[in-house]
Write a structure and sequence with these properties.
- About 30% of the residues are buried.
- Strand 5 and strand 6 form a beta hairpin.
- The chain is α/β, with parallel strands linked by helices.
- It has a 6-stranded mixed beta sheet with strand order 2-3-1-4-5-6, with helices on both faces.
- The radius of gyration is 18 Å and the shape is globular.
- It is built from 9 helices and 6 strands.
- It has a single domain, classed as 3-Layer(aba) Sandwich (Rossmann fold), CATH 3.40.50.
- Bound molecules: adenosine-5'-triphosphate and magnesium ion.
- The site of adenosine-5'-triphosphate has 17 residues, from helix 4.
């Protein structure tokens, strides 16, 4: 089998997965994390150790439609401290999983810089991060659809996302809820021409409101 061929790569991926899995087993039972539920020992104890994990290493989930400003925010505020995990760069969910596992094993803070528009997608990462003893912060980019579309239009040619793709994400978008088990929620909003404000969203405020069109 030629080195670098798809089959060789796949075998290599399995070998990497096996090695990364040692000591950091967080099979979560759904979709991307495997067909069967195999709770790692850390996952089994995660609920009991919740108070200890709140002070632990941070996993950040970005939540926002295309053009809402996620990657820009990462570059400006988290580049020096958090590894960026993104479908744009990694292309497949399996490769995202490998990097998540590597971060968990290395106790390295990371950000999942995807739209993470649905609760099910987020649940996979939240379960995995918890299993690794990480605290979980959700950053909700509450950029109105119209603003996101306008920003998207101004992107360099080749980086513009087709409008129907943005609209589809807007339609299926589920704003984050406390019940998803975040330790912390931050709301990132447009506050000026090129500015954003970030503020913690408290449990007392309930769940954050949905995305606006305008
Ligand atoms: N606060 C801001 N004010 C004005 N323009 C912004 C702001 N943040 C980002 N932009 C611009 O909007 C465009 C989209 O931003 P960005 O790439 O960060 O979005 P994204 O949420 O990562 O989108 P995608 O999900 O498609 O990767 C970029 O051209 C960026 O320069
Ligand atoms: Mg981006």
């Amino acid at each position: 089998m030629a080195a670098g061929s798809p089959r060789a790569n796949e075998r290599n991926d399995r070998e990497i997965s096996r090695r990364l899995g040692e000591g950091v087993d967080f099979g979560a039972g759904r979709g991307f994390f495997g067909a069967t539920t195999v709770l790692g020992s850390q996952e089994r104890t995660s609920i009991a150790t919740r108070s200890a994990t709140v002070a632990g290493v941070e996993a950040v989930l970005f939540i926002g439609i295309q053009g809402s400003g996620k990657t820009t925010f990462y570059r400006e505020r988290l580049f020096d401290t958090h590894v960026r995990i993104s479908r744009d760069m990694l292309k497949t969910r399996n490769r995202e999983l490998l990097l998540v596992r590597a971060c968990l094993a290395a106790r390295q803070a990371f950000v999942v810089d995807d739209t993470n528009a649905s609760k099910t997608t987020r649940a996979d990462y939240i379960t995995a991060a918890r299993a690794g003893g990480f605290r979980v912060a959700g950053y909700y980019f509450r950029t109105p659809l119209r603003t996101a579309l306008a920003r998207n239009r101004r992107r360099p040619r080749g980086q513009v996302i087709p409008v129907p793709g943005v609209l589809a994400t807007f339609k299926r978008f589920q704003p984050p809820e406390w019940a998803e088990d975040f330790d912390e929620l931050q709301v990132v909003e447009v506050s000026g021409e090129n500015e954003v404000s970030v503020r913690p969203w408290t449990r007392e405020e309930g769940d954050p409101p949905g995305l606006e069109r305008e």
